């Protein structure tokens, strides 16, 4: 309980520090991890079901269609470590296809969410041993020493969340996974691929306005948790393509000259000035291969859909 309170207050302090730093910068920016409070997670769930948002259903389709091959790649008696629990259906497809998985270790920063998704997996796979772990996968951390050391250990990171990390952070993350699974270990990673711009931009600016709501919810969170005074009507959601970084960016655009307070500070906005809230990088297979190699991995398998929208990669 005490640990939960500590984690909560540490997170609150970090959120406050990020808001002060990000909104004081000449180009205002906020880390995308703060998009996921309860409401943000709920909205993201809705996004995954939108007709315009192809990544989730495409990746799920690949996992289903290639489940046997992916399971063979992972090996028998695998210890599966999932980075960011709660991929739900995708986790169930992988675990359901594996031959006698030895252990499932879901990791997530949100303890409640982690417990709920571990309970769901337990109901579906009653004979599988599960060891949920509260951890932030973007930080360095050690796995518990008593986890079985025997290979194969498999890192599972679906959802193209790797695209939300800047390339140096993505490489650090992949190095960390290598450290966790060992030299004999493997990883199965979901990567969103570069494609036609109109398809990309629609996926991040849907007609129903769910992504806009998801983005603006960050201001609502600042208002609630950091005594903010942001006028939500004064900002609009925008999805932009950044060709240099090969990323769809989410911005909150100020619709007027205005100021707002939060954390006891005042932040001013010019008309059209933006808060950059997320990068979602889109990789070519070649660019991802280079990233993986820099981090000590080889891309051994590429499973993709007929339109090559998305790839599930087997690394070893
Ligand atoms: C979680 N992540 C992979 C999503 C993405 O596509 O980058 C987050 C998201 N942002 C807007 N829509 C979805």
From TrEMBL:
Start and end residues of each Histidine-specific methyltransferase SAM-dependent domain: 15-313
InterPro entries registered for this protein in UniProt: EgtD, EgtD_Methyltrsf_superfamily, MeTrfase_dom, MeTrfase_EgtD-like, SAM-dependent_MTases_sf
The organism's place on the tree of life at top rank: Bacteria
Entry's Gene Ontology molecular function annotations: methyltransferase activity
GO biological process, one term: methylation
Keyword annotations: Methyltransferase, Transferase
PANTHER family assigned to the protein according to its UniProt record, in alphabetical order: ERGOTHIONEINE BIOSYNTHESIS PROTEIN 1
Protein name per the record: Dimethylhistidine N-methyltransferase
Organism taxonomic ancestry: Bacteria, Pseudomonadati, Pseudomonadota, Alphaproteobacteria, Hyphomicrobiales
């Amino acid at each position: 309980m005490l640990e939960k309170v500590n984690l909560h207050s540490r997170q609150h302090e970090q959120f406050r520090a990020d808001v002060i730093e990000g909104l004081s910068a000449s180009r205002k920016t906020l880390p995308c991890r703060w998009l996921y409070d309860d409401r943000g997670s709920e909205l993201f769930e809705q996004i995954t079901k939108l007709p315009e948002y192809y990544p989730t259903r495409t990746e799920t389709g690949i996992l289903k269609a290639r489940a046997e091959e992916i399971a063979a790649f992972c090996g028998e008696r695998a210890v599966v470590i999932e980075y960011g629990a709660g991929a739900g259906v995708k986790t169930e497809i992988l675990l359901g296809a594996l031959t006698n998985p030895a252990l499932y270790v879901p990791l997530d920063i949100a303890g409640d969410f982690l417990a709920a998704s571990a309970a769901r997996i337990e109901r579906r796979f009653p004979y599988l041993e599960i060891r949920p772990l509260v951890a932030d996968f973007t930080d360095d951390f050690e796995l518990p020493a008593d986890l079985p050391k025997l290979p194969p250990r498999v890192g599972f990171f679906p959802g193209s969340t790797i695209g939300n990390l800047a390339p140096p952070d993505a490489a650090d993350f992949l190095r960390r996974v290598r450290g966790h699974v060992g030299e004999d270990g493997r990883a199965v990673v979901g990567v969103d691929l570069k494609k036609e711009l109109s398809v990309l931009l629609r996926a991040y600016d849907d007609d129903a306005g769910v992504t806009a709501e998801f983005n603006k919810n960050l201001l609502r969170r600042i208002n609630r948790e950091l005594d903010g005074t942001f006028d939500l009507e004064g900002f609009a959601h925008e999805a932009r393509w950044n060709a240099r970084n090969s990323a769809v960016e989410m911005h909150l655009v100020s619709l007027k000259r205005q100021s707002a307070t939060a954390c006891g500070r005042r932040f001013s906005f010019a008309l059209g000035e933006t808060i950059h809230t997320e990068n979602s990088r889109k990789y070519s297979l070649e660019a991802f291969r280079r990233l993986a190699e820099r981090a000590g991995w080889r891309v051994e398998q590429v499973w993709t859909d007929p339109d090559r929208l998305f790839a599930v990669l087997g690394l070893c």
